[in-house]
Write a structure and sequence with these properties.
The protein is an alpha+beta fold. It folds into 3 domains: 133 residues; 124 residues, Phosphorylase Kinase, domain 1, CATH 3.30.200; 208 residues, Transferase(Phosphotransferase), domain 1 (Orthogonal Bundle), CATH 1.10.510. It is built from 12 helices and 13 strands. Strand 3 and strand 4 form a beta hairpin. Keywords: Glycoprotein, Kinase, Leucine-rich repeat, Membrane, Receptor, Repeat, Signal, Transferase, Transmembrane, Transmembrane helix. Its main location: membrane. One of its GO terms (molecular function) is ATP binding. It is found in: Membrane.
Length: 486
């Protein structure tokens, strides 16, 4: 948002700099032409004075009779010829004056041409810059209308008009009991998540569904007897709603779950998303995992190894977009299987940007006021210093890779029975010992993909290094996983 707001200021500064430069250029040319004209005029006067002085000296020192004799000898002695040269001399005596006036006129004409050229250049440049700014604003407005991101009078903001084609589709959310008949599909720290069906415009068209996240907010009607913990929770939810709107409301990528709409209410906020019928990666890994060749399982949404690898590549691509392509850089800060949703084709979508932060290009890290995230996925340096960078997301993604290959999340009871504390240290010990079979999820072991699984486990160890400088970037991880997949 800051970079967007600063764009007009930078454009105005560029325009002012350009105008100043051109004015200096005009002044320099005028000064140069003035000095050149003065020098040429002085030279012309000096030439005329020299000619008159020579002519006066010749007429003063030479007797008149010798001049006439000389003229008669040169013209053949004819009376007509004697008078003709005299007339000619009298006529040509003041002749040097016109050549002096002609160069001056020529230089004045040249000066006017240069000045007109510079003025035309200045006017054309200003017109081009102004028209470019106007076209840029019009293009941005048109793009916002195409993508959505327009606000209605009721305060409803549509971000994805391809899904929410009319604001009337969300009119039921403005009623007091608008969610009473809807199915609850999830509960989180911020509130409940509901499933709703959009109206069908044409007969025979397949119905489309949306997920509605309800987030409470602190308002004038909020009771004053709230505890400090409840007040802090409401403040946290308010910050998360703002973070969601700033990030996924304005970005588009196939591996990110976009914000479709925002509906403010006096006591809460409604965030509307496209419904993902295959649920989260967390639920898919806990389901029945007897998979077929297409990656789907006999259970609700179980995943075979090819499907898990495709999920890993998709999450890496989404993370690369947030870290490398988007400006300013966005750090998710809460990557985990529960925040990765699966669409109809089991394509992953990174969701829940409530803790996401935008990091300006000039900053090497951002310091948080308190620790945020999920235990087991938080990078050690962030846990110790509250400073986070993009490498913290890479650490969390490394844990996700370990979960995909082992089938065990950090909170699994298995890690309470081993000597190592947590999945990361346990995985390091297993990979160093060479006993890779111990780490592979039994549900996908022996299906001909063990070599790929071991390579992914090595990448997971690489991503979860204690020193953030030793971890790869999201782009490096995406390249390595793409090579394994291909």
């Amino acid at each position: 948002m800051a970079s967007t707001a600063g764009t007009p200021g930078r454009s105005l500064l560029v325009v002012l700099s350009l105008v100043t430069l051109l004015l200096v250029l005009v002044s320099a040319v005028e000064c140069y032409d003035g000095r050149h004209a003065v020098a040429h005029s002085a030279l012309a006067r000096h030439s005329r004075l020299g000619t008159r002085h020579v002519h006066h000296r010749r007429t003063a020192t030479t007797p008149h009779r010798y001049v006439l004799a000389e003229k008669s000898n040169s013209t053949g002695g004819s009376p007509k010829n004697r008078s003709a040269p005299a007339a000619s001399n009298n006529a040509t005596a003041p002749a040097p004056a016109p050549p002096a006036a002609e160069p001056s006129k020529h230089h004045r004409s040249h000066k006017h041409r240069v000045r007109n050229w510079i003025i035309g250049f200045v006017v054309g440049s200003l017109a081009g810059v102004i028209s470019g700014l106007v076209l840029s604003v019009l293009f941005r407005l048109a793009l916002n209308c195409i993508r959505g991101r327009y606000k209605t009078r009721s305060g409803v903001t549509i971000f994805t008009p391809k899904l929410i084609k009319r604001v009337e589709y969300l009119a039921f959310l403005e009623k007091e009991d608008g969610l009473a008949s809807l199915q609850v599909i999830g509960r989180g720290g911020c509130g409940e998540v509901y499933k709703a069906q959009l109206p069908v415009e044409r007969e025979g068209e397949e119905p489309r569904f949306i997920a509605i996240k309800k987030i409470k907010k602190q308002s004038d009607s909020t009771p004053n007897n709230l505890s400090d913990e409840e007040s802090r929770q409401l403040d946290k939810w308010s910050r998360q709603i703002q973070s969601e709107i700033r990030t996924v409301g304005h970005i588009r990528h196939r591996n990110l779950l976009p914000l479709a709409a925002h509906v403010p209410r006096p006591d809460c906020h409604y965030l509307v998303y496209e419904y993902m019928k295959n649920g989260s990666l967390h639920n898919a890994l806990r389901a029945d995992t007897s998979a077929g060749d297409d990656g789907r399982c006999s259970g609700p949404a179980g995943l075979s190894w090819p499907a898990r690898l495709r999920v890993a590549v998709g999450v890496a691509e989404g993370l690369e977009y947030l870290h490398e392509s988007h400006r300013p850089q966005i750090i998710h800060r809460d990557l985990k299987p529960a925040n990765i949703l699966l669409d109809d084709d089991l394509e992953p979508r990174i969701a829940d940007f409530g803790l996401a932060k935008a990091m300006p290009d000039a900053h090497t890290h951002v310091t948080a006021s308190n620790l945020a995230g999920t235990w087991g996925y938080i990078a050690p340096e962030y846990h110790q210093t509250l400073k986070f960078t993009a490498k913290c997301d890479v650490y969390s993604f490394g844990v996700i890779l370990a979960v995909l290959a082992t089938g065990k999340e950090p909170s699994h009871d298995f890690f309470k029975e081993v000597d190592e504390v947590g999945i990361v240290r346990w995985l390091r010990r297993v990979m160093q010992s060479g006993d890779h079979v111990e780490a592979i999820d039994p549900a996908i072991a022996g299906a001909g993909y063990d070599e790929q699984i071991v390579l992914v486990l090595r990448i997971a160890v690489f991503c979860t290094a204690d020193d953030p400088k030793e971890r790869p970037t999201a782009k490096d991880v995406r390249c390595m996983l793409s090579q394994i997949k291909n």
